[in-house]
Design goal:
The chain is 28% helix and 37% strand. By secondary structure, it is an alpha/beta fold. The protein has a single domain (11-140), classed as STAS domain (Transcription Regulator spoIIAA). Helix 3 (122-130) links the parallel strand 6 and strand 7. Helix 1 packs parallel to helix 2 (94-110). The chain is globular and about 30 Å long. The model is unreliable at 1-37 (pLDDT under 50).
Amino acid sequence: MATSRSQPVGRPLLTFQIPDRHGFAATEPSTTACESTPGLAVQINRTGTATTLVLVGELDIATAGLVREALDVIEREGPDRLVIDLRRLSFMDSTGLHLIVSEQARRQRYGATALEIRRGPRAVQQVFRLVGLETQLPFSG
């Protein structure tokens, strides 16, 4: 099993892990590396008034529920700015695309916090590019 090492962006609020596609385990706040192959590790970090959601691994139908859960936790916290960091994703399907587009729409509809999406690797950005959303969403980096 490969190991992914997540670099913390501040003090983590919570870390979720999905060690495989058959379930997940919630762990205490941690800055240690997560075993995440072939699933997804989700880390929520706070730096000042911004909250960063770091995704490591694969965002697909099997793991999207965990990301939705993390976004709900962040929503309750009400940060001034939300950053969704896609740089450590190795794969994203249309379920992940829908989740991110829905989050952008929810934030616009309710006047919620500012959203920034840190560009993912080429394969992840290609999903946005193919449907014409790469210029429509608030990407950085």
